Amino acid sequence: MHFASVAYVGESTTEPLRYYHNITSNTLVVLEAMAAHKVKTLIYSSTCATYGEPVKMPITEKTPQLPINPYGKAKKMAEDIIIDFSKTTDMAVMILRYFNVIGSDPEGGLGEAPQPELREHGRISGACFDAARGIIPGLKVKGTDYKTADGTCVRDYIDVTDLVDAHVKALARAKPRNSRHLQCWNWKR
Ligand SMILES: NC(=O)c1ccc[n+]([C@@H]2O[C@H](COP(=O)([O-])OP(=O)(O)OC[C@H]3O[C@@H](n4cnc5c(N)ncnc54)[C@H](O)[C@@H]3O)[C@@H](O)[C@H]2O)c1
Predict the structure, then answer these.
(1) Distance CA 29, CA 144 (A)
(2) Full set of structural domains in the chain with CATH
(3) Which PANTHER family does this chain map to (predicted)?
(4) pLDDT digits (tens, 9 = 90+) for 100-120
(5) Model pLDDT for residues 11-45, shown as the tens digit of each residue
(6) CA dist., res. 167 & res. 184, Å (int)
């Protein structure tokens, strides 16, 4: 399971080379290392950012992937490399495109701990925790012109424990020459 990534859309626009290097190029290196050591199964963490701004909702696995920022583009390129490589080998591949992940380990062992230096690029989940803990003065809700009751953005989330469940299932079902890419959002729909 390849989770490692830099993963902030805003940061990717100011440091694109770091994102292409660490996401695209390093995934290529991971594939080479897997091949050298005969590791036969890969579950890859991709993202809804690979879809860009689709005209039609809801987004499905068939929605064209037209990413609009370096983070999404780097992940899309990594996906392409993985799929092309899997066609030439007996490596079993599952690509999971997560939407917005939220939540913590119910037993309290793991939780969200935003790195202070990344707060300004951070996710709304981290900002909620920071506001609740008094680390920032309040929660700033961005967006005023979405087609919603109050003009702010509406998003849905997948709980991290459901995402773990999805990975376990993906691992069990990964088969060579049957690359799959699946979305992870609103998992219980
Ligand atoms: N959190 C979300 O909502 C979300 C949504 C879509 C996709 N994803 C993807 O899920 C994966 C995990 O995201 P996360 O939210 O846990 O992010 P995170 O930033 O909390 O964790 C990523 C981890 O990868 C490590 N890392 C980065 N580069 C590395 C490298 N070269 N070698 C080894 N480790 C490295 C970082 O130190 C960090 O611990 C990422 O691939 C991300 O792109 C996350």
Answers:
(1) 42
(2) 1-99+157-189 (3.40.50.720), 102-155 (no CATH)
(3) UDP-ARABINOSE 4-EPIMERASE 3-RELATED, UDP-GLUCOSE 4-EPIMERASE
(4) 888 888 898 887 776 777 777
(5) 999 999 999 999 999 999 999 999 999 999 999 99
(6) 10
Residue 2 CA to ligand 1 centre (angstroms): 9
Which residues contact ligand 1 via a Cβ below 6 A? 3-7, 22, 26, 45, 47, 98, 100-101
pTM: 0.90
Measured CA to CA, the distance from residue 89 to residue 31 in angstroms comes to 11
Residue nearest to ligand 1 atom 9, measured at CA: 45
**What's the CA gap between 110 and 124, in Å, rounded?**
18
Q: Give, using CA atoms, the residue closest to atom 23 of ligand 1.
A: 4
CA of 115 to the centre of ligand 1 (A): 12
- Tokens 């003065």: give the residue: 137
